[in-house]
Structure formats: C-alpha cells, structure tokens
Protein: Iduronate 2-sulfatase
Amino acid sequence: MKVRPWPFLLYVILCLLSVGSRGNAQTTVKPNVLLICVDDLRPELGSFGAEHISSPHIDALAGRGVSFQRHFVNAPSCGPSRYTLLTGRYGPAGNNALFMRAADTANVPPSMPEYFRSSGYTTVSVGKVSHHPGGRGGPDWNDSTIVEMPEAWDRHLMPAAKWKHPRGAMHGLAHGEIRSDAGGMDVFQAAEGEDDIYPDGVITEEALHQLGLLTAADQPFFLAIGLIKPHLPFGAPQAYLDRYAGVEFPPIAHPEKPAGRTTWHGSGEFMKYNRWGKNPNEDADFAEEVRRHYAACVSYADAQVGKILAGLQRSGADKNTIVVLWGDHGWHLGEHGVWGKHSLFEESLHSPLIVHYPGMKRAGARADAIVETLDIFPTLCELSGIGVPEFTEGISLRGILEQPEASGHPAVAYTNKAKTIRTDTHRLTLHDDGFVELYDHTTAGKETVNVAEENPEVVESLRLELRKRLQ
Structure:
C-alpha cells in the first residue's frame, strides 16, 4: 500500500506535539517531591523556639513553608515510625515492620513511593529512609535479595564509602570507624575535618548527584533523602561543636525519674556505649557535654539540609518541588531521667515537620494544630494532584497549610506494651494490662503528674477514642 507523504508527515508531527504536550503538562501538573528524613531529631530548632540551637538552613526552610509545631510520630522508634510515614497506615510496633510488610506484598496496599511510582514518578531514596539505610536486609544490610519495600524505588542507594557497608555507616564515627561492640565505641565524638569524614556528608554528596540526574530528566521525581545524625553515637566534625562554645543551654526540664508507673526505661541504647564511667543523670557536667554533642550533630545535619536545598535551587527544579522535612521521632535529653527515645512521653513522640510548596500563600507560618506522621502520605498525594488512595489512614494537611490557624486532630502512638493519644489538652497512655496514665497539658505539671484517678470521665472518653483509632 502506498502512503501519501503529507498526511503521514502531518500525523507524525501531531503525535510529537501530543507527546510534548503531555510532557509539559506532566511537569506543570505533577510537582516533584523532595522528602528529607532526619533521624532522632527533636523539635529543638530555632524555628521551633530553641534560641540556643544553630539550625539556619532548616529555619530558612521553615521561613518559606509551614512548620507544624505540634507534630507527633506514631511510634517512638525508627522502624515503626518510618512504616507509618511510608505506608500511610498504622503498623507493627517493632523495627522489622517494613520487612514484615515486604513478606506479604500481595495482600497489602502499595507504599507511598510505590504509589507515586505508579503515578508516573521516578522514585529514588538515598541514605536512611526506611529502617535500614539503603532499604535492604542481611547481616550488613546490603543483601539485594532482602528488600524492605519491593517495587518502591527505581533506585535505593546507601553510599557506605569507608564504612564498608550500610550497617557500618549507620553507627559510624569519623574516618570509617564501625561499631562492632558498642561498649568500645565512644558515645560522642568531634573530629577535625570536612563533612565527609562522617557518613552524612557522603550521603549528601550522593543525594546531590541523584538530584542532578533527576532534574535533567523529563519526568517528575520523588526523591527521599535520609540523614543519620543526630542518631547515636553523637559524632560530627569539630567545627559544629565549636558553634556552641560559650552558648548557654537551658536547664533540663523535669529531669527526675517518674515516681509512679510509666513507660520510663533505663536508656539502654545510650548507656551501652562507652561513657568513660559517667552517668548523665548523676553528673551534670557530663550531661552538659552530651547535650552539646547532640546539638553539634543537629547543626551538622542542618548543614546537609542546606546543601541539598541549595542544589535544588541551582537546578531550577525548586520552582516545581514540594519539600518536606520530617524527624522520625523525638529524643529525651535527660527529661524524666531518660537519654533516648522509646518512651510514650512527649519528648519521644514530638518531632519537627515542615512543608513547603511553590506558591503557598502562608509561607513562614507556624501551625499549632496537632497532627501526626500518618498524615504526610495523603498530604503529598493531594498536593501532587495524583489522588489520595482510600487505604491511607491519615488526614491530608492541605487545609492547615492553607489556613495554619485551623484545628488539627488527636495523635496516637504505640509501642509493643502500651499505646497513647495526645489531644490539645491531655495525653492518655494505656498499658496493655489496663493501667492508665493521664496528663493534663493545661497545667504546669504536664507529664509529671498522673491525674487519671481524679478524671475518670476524661480517661473513659480518651480510652474509647484510642481503641477506635487502633482497632
């Protein structure tokens, strides 16, 4: 059959125009997503009211976005907290939650990156985004046959560099020092050198490389970057510790161990490191050193955030990118006599959340609404215009982003022994054997005085709400 040249040529031109039009529409309609996860980050930042902390880059992001001053995670531990972030659903309380999900992929909904990937996004993770940096299992967390979230990422990367493997980098100190026996590794350290003498500097370099590849491609991207510090051990370049020379730190709030029954614990994760025979609950000078090294790690992580955001701006993709900064849980620095996470007190569950997107009308606002990590998945779906899947259990925060003075909703969290709910005025913690803690946040005592016996109606109301949420 003979084809007449002009109609055929016109057909080809129309097809090319159609493809180009779809590509342009995709860039316009589907914004990119940059998700920055920071491990063990308390909301102790300049933009959250901490004047003694140097966090200029995170604060600058808060100045362009909305900072959620009362964001709470759904579990006070890395794995289950990241499970709720990445699945939009309540899950198991253990650190292997995402591997448990991976074992039954056929019967569970897609993860957030998988959902974005199925919606036309290129998905890339760098560093600690799921529980294991790089998202794999095995003895050294680099076994490509054991994946935390199958089908989630086009590329999931963990540059181990001189730390040899992801497990080594996770708890690595300067110049490739790997934790073998925690008791032989210092609980804090400040070494002279550039940012790449610690793992987060290398993670940031790889993240910037991936950002360059993604912004050069004609497809929307979902890039998740997981920074390890300020996770234990507290190691950061000396320059970041130097920032705190002469800086006065506020006193530790309610440093005493609770008298009654609570979710208090003995700070085992912290205490197993080499502490030179010192206990921060008994040695005020040592407690001060610990707090300063933690702060140095925060400033080090903040510097990596600054590099990432500067790279996004240089690429020009910032004009069409949603940016979320999220702390995977809080961390006690002596409050209630705890040094670590894993409790159901406020200090373990309260973490920073900042959201920025181009054209937002209330840039720089602080939202005091109570929100939870579970809300991030539906929020990103709504902001991206890809539709919120029915299986997500959180509530989109778009309304609060547009009106930061709007109300939020109670936040729940859980461990394998208890669960808790936080409202505007109270926190109720319900132990598995029925024991109840109730704290009134409208009083000076807050979470130091259990008022459950005096408030049976409040206890019953919150108990019912908690059970309804965590059926």
User: Anything to note?
Assistant: The CA atoms of residues 231 and 438 lie 30 Å apart. DSSP finds 14 helices and 18 strands in the chain. Confidence is low (pLDDT under 50) at residues 1-27. Residues 30-410 form a domain with the Alkaline Phosphatase, subunit A fold (CATH 3.40.720.10).
